[in-house]
């Protein structure tokens, strides 16, 4: 836990130093960021002696190559926390205002004041991207670059007080969770960091409004800097039947207004669809600090070549000369530049190679692809082998629903059903040809 | 499964660090503010942090929990600052012998007795206490901090104007537990009379003195008053009777009470004038000051 002491500056002309911001330090530049986060176990001398199980474990759990998108997320997180602390300087009187102006119990959405009720501390950002892009991993790895908990000794009016600062917490939205459980999870994360028992003091008999008021006060007391809500696609569109207990967009709006803490919602693209079905006011509030869309790695980016080189030469063990532009294209075609998909394929290849060493030709890769992604609805057709498919315009991989979440409209439903039927037919053909 | 008070220490430490008393904030009102903020905790749980078990008797000038608070290591101020800045201590310190006050503190700290009082008449006067606030201070606080707080200086029974704004204070009767933000809106202006001005002048002179000098000042004042009473050309019986009826009239503008309640208060507070001016007697300062005012008016009339 960091311990820092600050005093009120005597000169009124100098803008008062905000200890809650100072603790954050300067942002790292891209090189420093990469040096801090890069995890390349294959560079370790012990890697040579790791067997196939060891390589699989290291590939799945350890290998991490930071990219520009992760860096952009890191910068944005840093900026958002800083913005949130801007108007709550414990050395100034505004801090007391922030602590005490807690909207309470009887609050109604239509009576909500503008977001600046809490001095603009509650800014929010939406981060979306396809499943498997490494959104959660990006947060799990970048957030620890920031200080987590600090104790700040503040001297004002000849008095000294020690304030606790929790810089960030990350929690998940559960598909079947309710408002109470979401609020509880926020407090549990704070407890986890501070070793406190605030969660035990949330009386389950009290209303959600009372819980919200208590959670708001706790968040403000511990000077919480940021909440990251992962899996935000599970948030529902507000309607009459779920307006009481479900975690809806309206409830997030309420959180935004009450907590006075910057919020980041991380989710798949379905989260945006749900959000867009809400009122313009909801969209405005929940994307107050913008919307970041994380993308797959493009085929042309050197990052892709670097990644394939590492995975295939170090973890699978093929010669680097085999990694031709065609191979890179082929792998990109199957994985769509998605790191999670690449890892899944690589892990399966390692497993297959354990039994029988096979040449990594197009047929083999296609076979691996079919097996690994056999349950996915948009399985590529056997009649569109990479060589031909990559040449055609119409076969470009589409961003389709990959998260077993419900499609948003009737057209999507019919498309995905058709794709699934087609995949099943192809699978049965492959089985009859003796592929499995 | 519940958690023990020991386990709650960390949470209470975070709470009290975030919500420290403002400069000059009246301590009972501060506790009310913290209690209203942390409404998920009971007053008992909140006070356990300072080693006090409960709020105890409210009708005293220095309740048991305030003494525990002042001597607790879990708050940043020393006991002298707590008493001087956050209670009416400066107002009554001259009326009590230092040794007696020390004994009172020890008995409260060691044996946890909560029934003791410092002065005669203290219970009844504290029971009918009024809360006072300055509308200008309230407005300034609200715009600066987002909330207003009750100042200890304003709660002194014989202070009726704001020292900062030099304007009459606003007051309201209280059951000694209402210090919420809502209560700031329900105050009425004090009509400053000659009595108010006289009492305030007397009090301000005393407030400027340090402890030892204040004690000496009160001793001298009591002695002078005793001499004056002895030289008064009235029969003792008549004088006492007159003082009794004057007490009710003098209390009327100071406390927001009905006529019958005011009479009850006056009879409960009545003491023989010679007992009031006895140097060793510990009578509530308000009673002494009212007697002093009564005698000065009588003397002027002669």
Write the layout of secondary structure elements.
The complex is a heterodimer of chains A (436) and B (302).
Chain A: E1 2-7, H1 19-22, H2 30-37, H3 52-62, H4 68-86, H5 94-100, E2 124-128, H6 135-142, E3 149-156, E4 159-166, E5 169-172, H7 179-194, H8 208-221, E6 227-230, H9 249-259, E7 263-267, H10 269-276, H11 280-286, E8 291-293, H12 302-316, H13 325-335, H14 339-355, H15 362-372, H16 386-391, H17 410-432
Parallel strand pairs in A: 1-3, 2-7, 2-8, 5-6, 6-7
Antiparallel strand pairs in A: 3-4
Chain B: H1 5-18, H2 27-37, H3 43-48, H4 64-71, H5 79-86, H6 89-92, H7 98-111, H8 122-127, E1 130-133, H9 135-145, E2 170-173, E3 188-189, H10 194-207, H11 211-231, H12 236-251, H13 259-269, H14 273-276, H15 285-301
Antiparallel strand pairs in B: 1-2, 2-3
Helix pairs in contact in B: 4-5, 12-13, 12-15
Describe the overall structure.
The complex is a heterodimer of chains A (436) and B (302). With 436 residues, chain A is α/β, with parallel strands linked by helices. Chain A has 17 helices and 8 strands. With 302 residues, chain B is mainly α. A 3-stranded antiparallel sheet of chain B has the order 1-2-3. Chain B is 55% helix and 3% strand. Chain B is built from 15 helices and 3 strands. Chains A and B meet through helix 5, strand 4 and helix 8 of A and helix 1 of B.
